[in-house]
């Protein structure tokens, strides 16, 4: 069995002060109605005690408190009357609007206004004296005034609550945006780091294996040369990435990021790295207009070719590795094909993140990519990566 909620300390304070004030007035003989011969003087303390008790439930049961308080106020009119009873009743009206239901908050001001008008008109019609207007004003002050004050307070409270909820929602959305931005930046950094380092480390792993397994000074010397070249270039790429992270990348990115003009050098380097694996790398640029493309498209194309060449170095069977670049309308097309090999293990270990990174890059640019086994023009089974990236006016910078 649940216990009744404890009254608010402010409500207790109002009840105590109201009771003491009413007792003080009664002791001094201060009454609002004059003498009532049908009831003893102490009878005015009964409605006072009732409304003081109702103050304790003005928040938890505002409608009940107002209903009983109205009866107590009517009963007070048949006694000598107490001003404290009237003042506490006005607080019950105010509390019923502020703490009651929304429908009650709408109805109570209307009802009190109609009661005020009805009492004023009724007294004027009955007594036909100007003093009846004063009584109507008093009724309005006691009933309609607290109701309007409660409406104003409730509107301010609801507006403050709405503002608080909106602020919390804004803070939550900002935190979600920040989390998504951090996750997107972490993913971008992971793609950049993988694409920059995987190519060089794969070449180092393959040529170090060749140098260790083939007991030939010439082969070892060539392998060490390739290892040193890839180590130096990999270190330079790492330094570039660290520089971009430290400076924020805003000013350094356009000049430091790879472009389509670097593809021929990338394919040439891949061919040098693949000499020991009997892979031959070729590059064919069939674009009629070889002007600049948007920087994000150029970087994505370069990384797709770089990752595809790395995968060919790890997995492809001996044969040609062809890189073709073309443009059709507003789409830039890049295709990399190599001879498919069913080898049990790759020439160098990998993380299986390359294809994921390529798809993420293409998706961010609203492009399409296909990667998987296919058949070449001569019927040979090949592994082909083909991506189409938009280079329309929406991606061009002014």
Walk me through what this model shows.
The protein has 398 residues and is α+β, with helices and mostly antiparallel strands. It folds into two domains: 9-171, no CATH class; 260-398, Histidine kinase-like ATPase, C-terminal domain (Heat Shock Protein 90), CATH 3.30.565.10. 63% of the residues lie in helices and 11% in strands. It contains eleven helices and five strands; from the N terminus they run αααααααααβαββαββ. The chain has helices spanning 9-28, 45-54, 62-76, 83-99, 102-127, 131-213, 217-247, 253-256, 263-273, 295-315, 354-364; strands at residues 279-285, 319-328, 331-339, 368-375, 381-390. It has a five-stranded mixed beta sheet with strand order 1-2-3-5-4, with helices on one face. Helix 2 runs parallel beside helix 4 (83-99), helix 3 packs antiparallel against helix 4 (83-99) and helix 5 (102-127) packs antiparallel against helix 6 (131-213).
* Helix coverage percent: 55-70%
By DSSP (H or I, 4+ residues per run), the number of helices equals 11
Estimate what percentage of residues fall within beta strands: 5-15%
Radius of gyration: 43 Å
Return residue spans where pLDDT drops below 50 for at least 5 consecutive residues. Answer: 250-255, 394-398
* SSE string, helices as H and strands as E: HHHHHHHHHEHEEHEE
Q: What is the total tally of β strands?
A: 5
Question: Gap between N and C termini, in Å?
Answer: 74 Å
Structural class: alpha+beta
> How many distinct folded domains?
2
The geometry reads as rod-shaped
The average pLDDT value, as a whole number, equals 82
The largest beta-sheet arranges its strands as: 1-2-3-5-4
Largest sheet: 5 strands, mixed
């Amino acid at each position: 069995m649940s216990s009744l909620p404890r009254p608010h300390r402010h409500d207790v304070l109002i009840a105590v002060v109201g009771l003491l004030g009413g007792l003080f007035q009664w002791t001094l003989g201060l009454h609002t109605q004059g003498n009532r011969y049908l009831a003893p003087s102490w009878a005015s303390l009964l409605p006072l005690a009732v409304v003081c008790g109702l103050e304790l439930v003005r928040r938890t049961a505002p409608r009940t408190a107002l209903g009983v308080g109205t009866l107590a106020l009517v009963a007070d009119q048949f006694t000598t009357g107490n001003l404290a009873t009237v003042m506490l009743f006005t607080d019950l009206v105010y509390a019923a609007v502020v703490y009651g239901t929304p429908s009650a908050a709408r109805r109570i001001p209307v009802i009190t206004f109609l009661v005020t008008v009805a009492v004023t008109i009724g007294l004027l019609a009955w007594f036909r004296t100007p003093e009846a207007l004063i009584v109507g004003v008093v009724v309005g002050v006691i009933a309609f005034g607290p109701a309007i004050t409660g409406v104003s307070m409730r509107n301010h409270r609801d507006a403050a609550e709405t503002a608080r909820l909106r602020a919390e929602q804004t803070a939550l959305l900002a935190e979600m945006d920040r989390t998504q931005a951090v996750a997107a930046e972490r993913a971008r950094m992971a793609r950049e780091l993988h694409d920059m380092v995987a190519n060089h480390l794969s070449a180092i792993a393959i040529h170090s294996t060749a140098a260790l397994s083939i007991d030939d000074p010439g082969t070892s010397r060539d392998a060490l040369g390739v290892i040193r070249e890839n180590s130096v270039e990999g270190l330079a790429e790492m330094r570039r990435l660290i520089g971009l992270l430290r400076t924020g990348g805003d000013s350094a990115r356009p000049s430091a990021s790879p472009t389509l003009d670097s593809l021929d050098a990338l394919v040439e380097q891949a061919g040098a790295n693949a000499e020991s694996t009997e892979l031959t790398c070729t590059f064919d640029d069939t674009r009629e207009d070889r002007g600049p493309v948007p920087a994000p498209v150029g970087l994505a194309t370069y990384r797709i070719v770089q990752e595809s060449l790395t995968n060919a170095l790890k997995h492809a069977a001996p044969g040609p590795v062809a890189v073709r670049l073309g443009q059709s309308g507003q789409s830039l097309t890049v295709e990399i094909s190599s001879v498919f090999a069913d080898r049990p293990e790759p020439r160098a270990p990998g993380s299986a993140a390359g294809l994921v990174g390529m798809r993420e890059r293409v998706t961010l640019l609203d492009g399409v990519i296909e990667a998987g086994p296919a058949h070449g023009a001569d019927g040979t089974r090949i592994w082909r990566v083909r991506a189409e990236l938009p280079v329309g006016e929406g991606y061009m910078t002014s």
